[in-house]
Amino acid sequence: MNLEKRIKRHIWSQKHSYSIDVPKDLVPVCRGELSDLNIESVIDSSGSIRFLGKLEEAYSAHLYLRTVARIWLTLPEFSAGAREELFRKASTLPWELYLSPGAPLRVQPTVRKSRIQHEGNAVETLTEAIARRFTDLSMEAPEASPAETDFVQRIKLEICNNRVEIQIDLSGEHLHRRGYRILTGEAPIRENLAAGIILWSIEQWQKRSANDDYPQRIHDPFCGSGTIPAEAGLISTGRAPGGRREFQFMHQPHYREASFQYLLRQVELKETAPLFTVSGSDINRDAVEISVKNCRRANTNPEITCEDAFSPHGFPESGKEVLIVTNPPYGERLRGGNSLYRKLISKMKETGTSGTFIIPGKLYPGLSLPADTLKLRLNNGGIPVYAVFYSPFE
Q1: Burial class (CB in 10 A: 0-12, 13-18, 19+), 98
Q2: Which of 235, 245, 326, 386 is most solvent-facing, going by the fewest CB within 10 Å?
Q3: What is the pLDDT at residue 333?
Q4: Looking at the whole model, is its pTM more than 0.85?
């Protein structure tokens, strides 16, 4: 049977298991996104999200999920109590259905509580097994890449209690890279984190409003390079965040171009009139210019102004009609400690405005907020941070 027929039989016509990389505290938000796509998900023993579906479901997840970092196709697990057994079983897997011949390969290993103990040996064994499979089929084998390249095929290899699970990356570049942010300011927040925080903040706002309505406006008084206004704009219209970029699966043998192009055509049809307006401000004129350009590239049109965050025009006076979502500037954090955040909380009290602000973990204790304050624990660019929801109405 030729390769195309085997792909149709074993890949296109079958359901597969997928694993999603998403920050732990954003797992409930991500599962809500999957539910909106009519994709059922479960949480595995490690806390990761899994779902079952055909390739089209994986394509839709890449196009529409806002909070995820990466999506993997998971192969059926098997047992391997020795290096020889790992090689023998891995070399029989149909790698030619999943991987591109000759393209660089990067294996990310995790080995624990198993007879195979050395991660380097495990990686070498799997790489040799893949090469053997391609060589036996007279195909050019993928070669291990010592470093990240523009096009590298990532594989997760996990061996635990002598059980082997292999996952193949479908995403390619980290999914926070939407393609619109070509200019950045200081300490920008990743797009998937910004989107997750916005969705979570809307949920908290709705709980306090006792209905499913949206705030009239989402405002970021420290908008920087515009990531939060851009992501809020995409959410407001239901615009797919992945509609303007490439994914790794588009370069893999099983790619169904017709199916993906059909889903792409549906993207614009699913957009709606804005559910809320979006605005932002920043005291730095250069940051405002960057923000405006990035938002335009994202096809969003928030109102961005150059204002001091605590001035009447830089901070809304609309009380319950406005939801604040903001990531105050990193430099201010270093110079002023948590004084900036105290000032921000005071302004929210003064205006009667609820919202979420992002703060480095080391500064959070100094705010002395109530123990039951709602917050997300996240990591942005290697820095532990909290996204704290504050409401003066409580």
Answers
A1: buried
A2: 245
A3: 45
A4: yes
